[in-house]
Amino acid sequence: MISKWPFWLLVSLLLFLAGSAPLAQSPSSVSIYSIWIRLSLRGMNQAEIESLMRNMAPKNIGEVKKRLRETVISNLKARKIPELFLASRDSDDLKSVLISIETELRFVGLQNDEDLKQMIKNKLGIPLNRL
Question: How many CB atoms lie within 10 A of CB 79?
């Protein structure tokens, strides 16, 4: 016959571990980043996302925006957008480059972020006065 003692020990250990888990924590910047991306993929723009996140720490939101900006810059470099911009010969080529950048901005939900537009101008050499 199996002793009931190990069973109760296991049950009490599980209850202790379940009770010692933190109940409420502020979300980290990593989870805010994933939330931001999910909302942007659902079609929300920057103003809507910021409105939903208005109760979160401004420092975390700032870190997320910084990470998103760096992601956009690296994605545009990987797609060779600066080279396409320099090689553009007519308005259709230029329009294609601008549409690619605009799509990337919409993808991360930073359509209205002036800091990102300035980064694109400074780091990639593409002025975005049309967006």
Answer: 14
122 φψ region: left (φ > 0), alpha (ψ -120 to 50), beta (else):
alpha
The whole-model pTM stands at 0.73
Give, as one character, the DSSP assignment of residue 56.
S
Residue 101, CA distances (Å) to 55, 58, 106, 111 in order: 30, 26, 9, 10
Determine contact, residues 43/106, Cβ cutoff 8 Å: no
What's the rounded Cα separation, in Å, for the pair 3 and 69?
Answer: 60
The pLDDT, as a whole number, for residue 23 is: 43
How does DSSP classify residue 111? T
Per-residue pLDDT of 92-123, as tens digits, reads 999 999 999 999 999 999 999 999 999 999 99
